[in-house]
Amino acid sequence: MTRKLLLLTLLPLYLWADAHLFVFHRFDDTRHPTTNTSTQTLRAEFEYLKKNNYKVISLERLYKAYKNGESIDDKWVVLTIDDSFKSFYKNGLPLFKEFNYPFTLFVYVQATVGNYGDYMSWEQIKEASKYGEIGFHSYAHPHLVSMSDEAIAKDSKKGMAIMEEKLGYKPKYYAYPYGEYNGRVRQQLETFNFDLIINQNAGAIDKASDPHDLDRTALTGANNIKVKLRTKTMPTTWINPKDWPKNGKITTLKATLPKEVKRIEYYISGYGWKSATVNEGKLTAKVDKKLKMHRTRIFLKSGNRQSSLMLVKP
Q: What digits encode the pLDDT tens for the residues 73-106?
């Protein structure tokens, strides 16, 4: 096969490769098992990345790829830590330093300002910044969807001003508290000109992903990074629902998917997995479900390809 033909053969894979963003919270803190990762598991995950030639990159490197129209590498992995818990500084950071893996630490500002016991001090955050990037996780860690536009702006301005005062720069990346957001919240945060805005919808990212709505998967509990790295993007245009329904009920699930997808499985929090047919890239499934949780996740899956949506009750 000629070099030109080989490049043409590989071009679709190269252009649409899938990178992965992961999020951690606590390390070796067994008081909170749902957000905890043991350092034993963390080491095993890092060893897996190293052994299988994954390249752990910074959010800055990822942003430059989007800014410059570069392709996304299938072996890229981005590691982030939310909330700036002290257990990261004490237990997690030494492993990041040992493996020389960059990270982004998203700071819950009020917790540091208030000297909350489980959270890092400004001195510890500055020390961590020598090895990774520092992002913004809001001032008061609020439920943004239930706040007014003015309150969202006030929280953001306050937190960013304090970070600039304490660290000497404004953060370039934002991660939603609790992973909760909707279109209105996003619009408010976009006025602050963040380079990247990150959600907590499990999945992967590719060249077509929205830099202001990047999917990020949690790594907690047992070591399942091998499985999560298999996840591929599934470009999805959500038609219904797009936001929390006024009556709290979804009657029909509608979305536009790649035309080669003929059948999917869908999941709505509290109801398990169901199957549905996709006709010419159009999904229309009658579900008739009353949403049980104030944070409801909807997943669409076809093989390893996946997309997800979070609905948050105002």
A: 999 999 999 999 999 999 999 999 999 999 999 9
Structurally, at CATH architecture level, domain 3-231 sits in Alpha-Beta Barrel (3.20)
Maximum Cα–Cα distance across the chain: 64
State how far the Cα of 129 lies from the Cα of 132, in Å rounded to an integer: 5
Give the helix ranges, DSSP H, for the chain: 3-15, 39-51, 59-67, 86-87, 93-99, 109-113, 122-128, 149-167, 183-190, 225-228
Q: Which candidate, 96, 3, 10, places its Cα nearest to that of 56?
A: 96
pLDDT digits (tens, 9 = 90+) for 136-171: 999 999 999 999 999 999 999 999 999 999 999 999
pTM greater than 0.90: yes
Tokens of 284: 């229309």
Domain range list for the chain? 3-231, 237-312
